[in-house]
Amino acid sequence: MLVDRYNRKINYLRISVTDRCNLRCIYCMPKEGIPKLSHKEILRYEELLKIVRVAVQKGISKFRITGGEPLIRKDVIHFIQQLANIPGVRDISLTTNGVLLYQMAEELYNAGIHGINVSMDTLDPTKYMRITGRDYFNHVWRGIEHAEQIGFFPIKLNVVVMRGLNDDEILDFAKLTLDKPYHIRFIEFMPIGPEGVRHTERFISGPEIKSRIQALRKLIPVKSQSFDGPARRFKFRFAKGEIGFISPLSHPFCSSCNRLRLTADGKLRGCLFSDEGIDIKTSLRNGCSHEELGDLLISAITHKPKGHHFGEETFKRCASPMIRIGG
Ligand code: SAM
Ligand code: SF4
Q1: Which ligand number lies closest to the CA of residue 159?
Q2: Could you tell me if the CB of 264 is within 6 A of ligand 1?
Q3: Is 85 exposed, middle or buried (0-12, 13-18, 19+ CB in 10 A)?
Q4: Which residues does a 6 A CB cutoff place in the pocket of ligand 2?
Q5: 250, CA 20 to 30 Å: which among 14, 103, 192, 312?
Q6: Whole-angstrom distance, CA of residue 127 vs CA of residue 122
Q7: CA-CA distance, 64 to 233, in Å (whole number)?
C-alpha cells in the first residue's frame, strides 16, 4: 500500500490520455486556445499500460480516464480493454464531455467502464453554446440517456457552477434527481490556468449552492461505504438520484486526497493546484526498468503537497489549464 508523508493512502490514478478537445469550455480552455502537444510528446498506450502495471504492483487499483476529451483519442476503447485486463485493476471510470458518448457508450461498457462522469453545466442549449463554444447540447443528452439505458451506473453529471452564468439552474439540476437516477455533482469553479473567466466574480461556494437547494427541499445525507471521492453526498426523499458537492476551495479535501495524476505528456502530479510534476516519460523512453518506474511513482507520492493554499497569501495560481492537467 502506498502511504504518503501525511499518512494519506494513495490508491487512485487519474490518467489524462490527451490534451485535445472538441469543446472550448470557458473555464477550462483559454480563449486563444493552447498550443497542442505533438504526437511524440503524448504518452503512447503501451507506455501508459506499463505505468499502470507498475502502479498496480505498488497498490493503486482505481483508475480514471480523462483529458482533454478522452473519447477523441484514437483507439481509446482498445486501450481501456487492455487496461481492464491488467490483474489488480479493480475500478476504471471515465470523465467525458459526452459529445461522443452516444456512439461509443456500448463499446465503453463492454470494455469495462460502468461508471461515468459527464460534464454538463446547463440544461439550456443556448447557454450550452455560450459555455462550451459548440452546439452539441442534444448530442450530449442523447448520450447520457443512452448510457442510462445500457446500464451505466453511476452516471454523474459534473456541473461547474458560475455566478451569473448557470447558477440560476441549480434548482433545476437538483430537481432532475427526483426522476432520474443521475448523481448531480456541483463543482466549485477553480482558479486554474490563465485568467479566462474572472474567478472572483463567478465563484460561488458549495455551501451557498447547498443552502439554495435546501430552501427548496430537505437534503438527506447519503452514507458512503468508504472514502469514495471528494463529494459530500445528499439526496431528496424518494429521489432516484443524488446531489453531491465538490468544494475544493471552501471545503478542501486535501487531508484525505488519495490521488495522483498522470498528464498526457507524461508528468506525474500530486496536486491539481501545483505546477510541480515528475517527468516519467523521459525515463520510460530511456528504457528504465520496472523498479525505476516504481521509484518514480514513489517519488511523486513523496512530493505530494500537503494541500493547496487557496485563500492564503501564499496561493499561486497554477499556470497549466485543466485541459493540460486532466481534470
Ligand atoms: N473533457 C472531459 C470533460 O469535460 O468531462 C474531461 C476533462 S475536464 C478537464 C474534467 C472536469 O474538469 C470537467 O468536469 C470540467 O467541468 C472540470 N473543470 C475544468 N476546468 C475547471 C475549473 N476551472 N473549475 C472547476 N472544474 C473544472
Ligand atoms: Fe474540453 Fe472538458 Fe475542458 Fe470542456 S472541460 S474544454 S470538454 S477538456
Answers
A1: 1
A2: no
A3: exposed
A4: 21, 23-25, 28-29, 67-69, 97, 119, 322-323
A5: 14
A6: 7
A7: 20
Q: Is the pLDDT of residue 225 over 60?
A: no
Residues 39, 42, 47, CA angle at the centre, nearest 5°? 120
Domain count, the chain: 1
**Dihedral over alpha carbons 141, 145, 146, 150 (to 10 degrees):** 150
Distance of alpha carbon 151 from alpha carbon 153, whole angstroms? 6
In a domain, 51, yes or no: yes
**What CATH number does residue 305 fall under?**
3.20.20.70
| Predicted confidence (pLDDT) per residue in 271-308, tens digit | 776 767 899 999 999 999 999 999 999 988 887 877 66
Instruction: Assess whether the C-beta atom of 27 lies below 6 angstroms from ligand 1.
Output: yes
pLDDT, tens digit (0-9, with 9 covering 90-100), for 266-278: 999 887 767 678 9
| 4 found inside a domain | no
260 vs 322, which has greater pLDDT?
260
CA of 70 to the centre of ligand 2 (A): 10
Q: Structural domain of residue 201, as residue ranges?
A: 12-325
Is 1 within the bounds of a domain? no
pTM for the whole thing? 0.93
CA of 326 to the centre of ligand 2 (A): 9
Residue 232 lies in a domain: yes
Give the ligand 2 atom nearest the CA of 160.
Answer: 5
